[in-house]
Amino acid sequence: MTTLPSIPWTTPPTMPRQTATPSEILTLTSMCGGGVDGAIHAAAGPQLLQECRTLNGAETGESKITKGYDLPSKHVIHTVGPIYSFSSPDNVELKAKQLTSCYRTSLELAVKHNLKHIAFCSVSTGIYGYPIDDATHIALDTVRNFCESDAGSSLERVIFVVWTDKDKHVYEELIPEYFPPESEAA
User: Fold this and answer.
1) CA 169, CA 148: separation in Å to the nearest integer?
2) Which residues are CB-neighbours of 174 under 8 A, at least 6 positions away?
3) Is 75 helix (H, G, I), strand (E, B) or coil?
4) What is the CATH number of domain 2-10+23-185?
5) Which helix (H) or strand (E) holds 172?
6) Tens of each residue's pLDDT in the chain, 186 residues
7) pTM given for the model
8) What's the chain's Rg over C-alpha atoms?
Protein backbone atom coordinates (compact mmCIF):
# COMPACT_ATOMS: atom_id res chain seq x y z
CA MET A 1 0.00 0.00 0.00
CA THR A 2 1.36 3.43 -0.94
CA THR A 3 0.73 6.41 1.33
CA LEU A 4 0.82 9.89 -0.13
CA PRO A 5 2.08 12.76 1.96
CA SER A 6 -0.14 14.18 4.66
CA ILE A 7 -1.91 17.21 3.29
CA PRO A 8 -2.56 19.86 5.92
CA TRP A 9 -4.87 22.21 4.02
CA THR A 10 -3.02 25.33 5.15
CA THR A 11 0.35 24.02 4.03
CA PRO A 12 0.79 23.02 0.41
CA PRO A 13 1.92 19.43 -0.02
CA THR A 14 5.44 18.39 -0.70
CA MET A 15 6.15 15.07 -2.27
CA PRO A 16 8.54 13.69 0.38
CA ARG A 17 6.54 11.32 2.53
CA GLN A 18 5.15 12.59 5.79
CA THR A 19 3.13 10.40 8.11
CA ALA A 20 0.98 10.85 11.14
CA THR A 21 1.54 8.69 14.16
CA PRO A 22 -0.94 5.80 14.22
CA SER A 23 -2.92 7.21 17.14
CA GLU A 24 -3.63 10.37 15.12
CA ILE A 25 -4.98 8.61 12.07
CA LEU A 26 -8.69 8.28 11.53
CA THR A 27 -9.39 5.47 9.10
CA LEU A 28 -12.11 5.59 6.47
CA THR A 29 -13.86 2.59 5.01
CA SER A 30 -17.02 1.56 3.20
CA MET A 31 -19.78 -0.49 4.76
CA CYS A 32 -19.94 -3.34 2.27
CA GLY A 33 -17.50 -5.97 3.49
CA GLY A 34 -14.73 -6.33 0.90
CA GLY A 35 -11.51 -4.58 -0.08
CA VAL A 36 -10.48 -1.85 2.32
CA ASP A 37 -13.55 -2.49 4.46
CA GLY A 38 -12.72 -6.17 4.90
CA ALA A 39 -9.12 -5.39 5.79
CA ILE A 40 -10.17 -2.80 8.36
CA HIS A 41 -12.72 -5.15 9.93
CA ALA A 42 -10.14 -7.95 10.12
CA ALA A 43 -7.61 -5.67 11.81
CA ALA A 44 -10.11 -4.00 14.15
CA GLY A 45 -11.51 -7.24 15.55
CA PRO A 46 -15.06 -8.52 15.99
CA GLN A 47 -16.21 -5.59 18.13
CA LEU A 48 -16.20 -3.35 15.04
CA LEU A 49 -18.71 -5.58 13.25
CA GLN A 50 -20.84 -5.74 16.40
CA GLU A 51 -20.98 -1.94 16.57
CA CYS A 52 -21.64 -1.64 12.82
CA ARG A 53 -24.71 -3.85 13.22
CA THR A 54 -26.19 -1.19 15.51
CA LEU A 55 -25.85 1.54 12.86
CA ASN A 56 -28.80 0.37 10.72
CA GLY A 57 -26.78 0.56 7.53
CA ALA A 58 -26.30 3.70 5.48
CA GLU A 59 -27.40 5.14 2.16
CA THR A 60 -24.96 5.72 -0.68
CA GLY A 61 -23.01 8.89 0.13
CA GLU A 62 -23.78 8.68 3.85
CA SER A 63 -21.13 8.26 6.55
CA LYS A 64 -21.21 6.92 10.10
CA ILE A 65 -18.60 6.67 12.84
CA THR A 66 -17.54 3.85 15.18
CA LYS A 67 -14.71 3.16 17.58
CA GLY A 68 -11.45 1.84 16.13
CA TYR A 69 -11.13 -1.10 18.56
CA ASP A 70 -7.90 -3.01 17.77
CA LEU A 71 -6.80 -0.50 15.13
CA PRO A 72 -4.21 2.15 15.94
CA SER A 73 -6.86 4.76 15.09
CA LYS A 74 -9.42 5.73 17.70
CA HIS A 75 -12.31 5.83 15.23
CA VAL A 76 -13.42 4.50 11.87
CA ILE A 77 -15.63 6.56 9.63
CA HIS A 78 -17.63 4.29 7.36
CA THR A 79 -19.01 5.63 4.10
CA VAL A 80 -20.97 3.98 1.31
CA GLY A 81 -19.45 4.83 -2.05
CA PRO A 82 -21.38 4.72 -5.31
CA ILE A 83 -21.08 1.83 -7.73
CA TYR A 84 -19.95 3.30 -11.04
CA SER A 85 -21.25 1.90 -14.31
CA PHE A 86 -19.91 2.79 -17.74
CA SER A 87 -23.11 1.35 -19.20
CA SER A 88 -25.20 4.06 -17.52
CA PRO A 89 -23.71 7.40 -18.60
CA ASP A 90 -26.90 9.17 -17.47
CA ASN A 91 -25.96 8.41 -13.86
CA VAL A 92 -22.52 10.05 -13.94
CA GLU A 93 -23.77 13.27 -12.31
CA LEU A 94 -25.64 11.34 -9.60
CA LYS A 95 -22.59 9.18 -8.86
CA ALA A 96 -20.40 12.29 -8.63
CA LYS A 97 -22.82 13.84 -6.11
CA GLN A 98 -22.84 10.63 -4.09
CA LEU A 99 -19.05 10.40 -4.06
CA THR A 100 -18.79 14.06 -3.06
CA SER A 101 -21.19 13.31 -0.22
CA CYS A 102 -18.98 10.42 0.98
CA TYR A 103 -16.06 12.77 1.49
CA ARG A 104 -18.11 15.71 2.80
CA THR A 105 -20.11 13.69 5.35
CA SER A 106 -16.94 11.95 6.52
CA LEU A 107 -15.24 15.30 7.06
CA GLU A 108 -18.33 16.61 8.87
CA LEU A 109 -18.28 13.61 11.22
CA ALA A 110 -14.60 14.10 11.93
CA VAL A 111 -15.20 17.72 12.92
CA LYS A 112 -18.36 16.87 14.89
CA HIS A 113 -16.32 14.40 16.96
CA ASN A 114 -13.44 16.86 17.48
CA LEU A 115 -10.99 14.81 15.43
CA LYS A 116 -7.97 16.61 14.01
CA HIS A 117 -6.80 14.09 11.40
CA ILE A 118 -8.52 11.95 8.80
CA ALA A 119 -7.17 9.40 6.34
CA PHE A 120 -9.09 8.60 3.16
CA CYS A 121 -8.81 5.58 0.95
CA SER A 122 -9.70 6.18 -2.68
CA VAL A 123 -13.45 5.67 -2.17
CA SER A 124 -15.26 3.60 -4.84
CA THR A 125 -12.25 3.22 -7.17
CA GLY A 126 -11.68 -0.47 -6.51
CA ILE A 127 -14.35 -3.05 -7.18
CA TYR A 128 -16.97 -0.26 -7.44
CA GLY A 129 -15.26 0.90 -10.64
CA TYR A 130 -15.20 4.69 -10.24
CA PRO A 131 -12.56 6.07 -12.65
CA ILE A 132 -9.53 7.09 -10.57
CA ASP A 133 -9.00 10.43 -12.32
CA ASP A 134 -12.59 11.55 -11.82
CA ALA A 135 -12.71 10.22 -8.25
CA THR A 136 -9.46 11.96 -7.34
CA HIS A 137 -10.73 15.31 -8.66
CA ILE A 138 -13.85 14.87 -6.52
CA ALA A 139 -11.86 13.87 -3.42
CA LEU A 140 -9.38 16.74 -3.66
CA ASP A 141 -12.00 19.35 -4.53
CA THR A 142 -14.30 18.28 -1.70
CA VAL A 143 -11.50 18.19 0.85
CA ARG A 144 -10.13 21.57 -0.27
CA ASN A 145 -13.54 23.26 -0.13
CA PHE A 146 -14.35 21.76 3.25
CA CYS A 147 -11.00 22.71 4.76
CA GLU A 148 -11.44 26.29 3.58
CA SER A 149 -14.82 26.50 5.31
CA ASP A 150 -15.37 27.52 8.92
CA ALA A 151 -16.32 23.95 9.79
CA GLY A 152 -13.15 22.55 8.27
CA SER A 153 -10.77 24.96 9.96
CA SER A 154 -10.38 22.61 12.94
CA LEU A 155 -8.87 19.81 10.83
CA GLU A 156 -5.08 19.75 10.96
CA ARG A 157 -4.26 16.92 8.58
CA VAL A 158 -5.86 15.02 5.73
CA ILE A 159 -4.11 11.92 4.44
CA PHE A 160 -4.87 10.21 1.13
CA VAL A 161 -4.00 6.51 1.09
CA VAL A 162 -3.82 4.72 -2.25
CA TRP A 163 -3.30 1.10 -3.20
CA THR A 164 -1.53 1.17 -6.57
CA ASP A 165 1.30 3.13 -8.14
CA LYS A 166 -1.15 4.26 -10.82
CA ASP A 167 -3.42 5.77 -8.16
CA LYS A 168 -0.41 7.37 -6.48
CA HIS A 169 0.62 8.93 -9.78
CA VAL A 170 -2.89 10.38 -10.30
CA TYR A 171 -2.84 11.96 -6.83
CA GLU A 172 0.67 13.32 -7.33
CA GLU A 173 -0.41 14.89 -10.62
CA LEU A 174 -3.64 16.41 -9.28
CA ILE A 175 -2.71 17.52 -5.75
CA PRO A 176 -0.94 20.70 -6.97
CA GLU A 177 -4.16 21.80 -8.73
CA TYR A 178 -6.05 21.79 -5.43
CA PHE A 179 -3.20 22.43 -2.98
CA PRO A 180 -0.71 24.56 -4.94
CA PRO A 181 2.75 25.15 -3.51
CA GLU A 182 3.01 28.40 -1.54
CA SER A 183 4.88 30.22 -4.28
CA GLU A 184 2.01 29.51 -6.71
CA ALA A 185 -0.76 30.09 -4.15
CA ALA A 186 0.42 33.60 -3.24
Assistant:
1) 25
2) 133, 136, 137, 140
3) strand
4) 3.40.220.10
5) helix 165-178
6) 433 344 433 333 332 233 344 444 454 555 545 677 888 888 999 999 999 999 999 999 999 999 999 999 999 999 999 999 877 767 899 999 999 999 999 999 999 999 999 999 999 998 899 999 999 999 999 999 999 999 999 999 999 998 899 999 999 999 999 999 877 555
7) 0.82
8) 16
Domain ranges of the chain: 2-10+23-185
Report the alpha-carbon distance of residue 105 to residue 76 in Å, rounded: 13
Number of residues in the chain:
186
Read off the amino acid at residue 86: F
Cα–Cα distance list, 127 to 33, 81, 92, 142 (Å): 11, 11, 17, 22
**Containing H/E element for 184?**
helix 182-185
DSSP state of 134: H
Report how far residue 33's alpha carbon sits from residue 45's, in angstroms, rounded to the nearest whole number. Answer: 14
Separation between Cα atoms, residue 142 and residue 55, nearest integer Å: 25
Q: How far apart are CA 170 and CA 35, in angstroms?
A: 20
Which residues, 6+ apart, have CB-to-CB distance to 89 below 8 Å?
none
